[in-house]
Amino acid sequence: GVNRHFQMICIHDRMNTATQKKISSKQIWAHLANMYDLSALHESEIVPFPNKELEFQLP
């Protein structure tokens, strides 16, 4: 969803703090992509604010 990159920062930090092995965010994304359809999850999220692109017009 919208916050996926912020959530990844948290996951990445916790994984690297909890283990002796350094894991890249790319490896975490790849593992999650094997387990879930990430694009479908992203599209299914309900956004709490308008996210529709509109043509800008001056009054």
From TrEMBL:
Matches recorded under InterPro entries:
Eaf7/MRGBP
Q: Which residues cross the membrane?
A: none
User: What subcellular compartments does it reside in?
Assistant: Nucleus
Keyword tags: Chromatin regulator, Nucleus, Transcription, Transcription regulation
Per the UniProt entry, what are the Gene Ontology biological process annotations, in alphabetical order?
A: chromatin organization; regulation of transcription by RNA polymerase II
- Indicate where this protein is primarily found: nucleus
- Where, if anywhere, are coiled coils annotated? none
One Pfam family of this chain: Eaf7
GO CC aspect terms? NuA4 histone acetyltransferase complex; nucleus
Provide the family line.
Belongs to the EAF7 family.
Protein name as it appears in the record: Uncharacterized protein
Q: Which organism is it from?
A: Capitella teleta (Polychaete worm)
